[in-house]
């Protein structure tokens, strides 16, 4: 009986081998090949020239800055829009919540290319957005919303907003509204209740949503290519140019590794923050 109990967990563990093998084959091995490509030149000799050339070029530093700036701007705007939307959806009646959830999920069925092309129509000088602003008297002449940062941020926020709303919604629906009532009974105003009750309890969803949006925004290629073209370079666009046009495999692999480092760093940071927040909440519950 003892031997059977010892073998049972091992037998269950074997069930994870197909999935683990698939992940190794599809993700781990290509990443290792990508890393190896960045460390060897065209002749097959070991070389760190790719990293030296990339880090030593001021133009590449500007491109990395552009990439991080756009990703940060998109993440913050998605948070400002998605946070109240998630709580509104969590507190809405069941029927309204279903409609809001459908409105949030349905756009995900449309490809990024289609949505980006749609924004090129909406944001052009004679497009519906400028026409509406002119009709309302908010502007005197059409705004330039294409081929610049503003148009890129608008389109990216539209694409990535659901990935901010859904994690916050998942956490918001678990927050007991009686906490707010208790804080109000003890004399806490709306701002105090938000800062000391709602915001701390919703932080796990905020951290997850920010990690999702930033990781996707920092690596987006299709949206910048269609909205701004070559006028505003980001790291994924520079990576694609190195592979497709310059045929420089080491330079492209180096940029891909740098982009991967940025994305993985954000994921690790969010994981660390999530553990810290969870541990702090557990200590607060034990103290209470």
From TrEMBL:
Q: Does the keyword GTP-binding apply?
A: no
Q: Does the keyword Transmembrane helix apply?
A: yes
Q: What is this protein called?
A: ABC transporter permease
UniProt entry keywords in alphabetical sequence = Cell membrane, Membrane, Transmembrane, Transmembrane helix, Transport
Transmembrane regions: 12-36, 63-87, 99-122, 152-172, 201-223, 251-273
Q: Which family does this protein fall into?
A: Belongs to the binding-protein-dependent transport system permease family. CysTW subfamily.
Entry's InterPro entries? MetI-like (IPR000515), MetI-like_sf (IPR035906)
């Amino acid at each position: 009986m003892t031997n059977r109990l010892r073998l049972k967990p091992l037998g269950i563990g074997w069930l994870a081998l197909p999935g683990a093998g698939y992940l190794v084959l599809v993700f781990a091995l290509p990443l290792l090949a990508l890393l190896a490509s960045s460390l060897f030149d065209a002749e097959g000799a070991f070389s760190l020239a790719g990293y030296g050339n990339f880090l030593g070029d001021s133009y590449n530093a500007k491109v990395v800055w552009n990439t991080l700036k756009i990703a940060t701007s998109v993440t913050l705007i998605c948070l400002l829009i998605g946070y109240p939307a998630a709580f509104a959806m969590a507190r809405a009646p069941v029927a309204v919540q279903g409609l809001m959830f459908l409105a949030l999920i349905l756009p995900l069925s449309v490809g990024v290319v289609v949505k980006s092309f749609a924004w090129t129509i909406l944001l052009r000088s004679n497009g519906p957005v400028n026409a509406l602003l002119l009709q309302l008297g908010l502007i005197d002449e059409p705004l330039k919303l294409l081929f610049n940062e503003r148009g890129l941020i608008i389109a990216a926020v539209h694409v990535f907003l659901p990935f901010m709303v859904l994690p916050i919604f998942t956490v918001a629906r678990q927050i007991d509204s009686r906490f707010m009532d208790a804080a109000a009974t003890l004399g806490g105003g709306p701002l105090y209740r938000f800062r000391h009750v709602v915001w701390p309890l919703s932080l796990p969803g905020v951290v997850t949503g920010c990690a999702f949006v930033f990781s996707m925004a920092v690596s987006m290629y299709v949206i910048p290519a269609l909205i701004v073209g070559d006028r505003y370079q980001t790291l994924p666009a520079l990576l694609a140019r190195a592979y497709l046009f310059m045929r420089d495999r080491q330079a492209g692999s180096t940029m891909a590794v740098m982009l991967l480092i940025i994305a993985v760093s954000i994921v690790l940071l969010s994981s660390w923050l999530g553990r810290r927040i969870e541990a702090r909440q557990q200590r607060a519950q034990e103290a209470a």
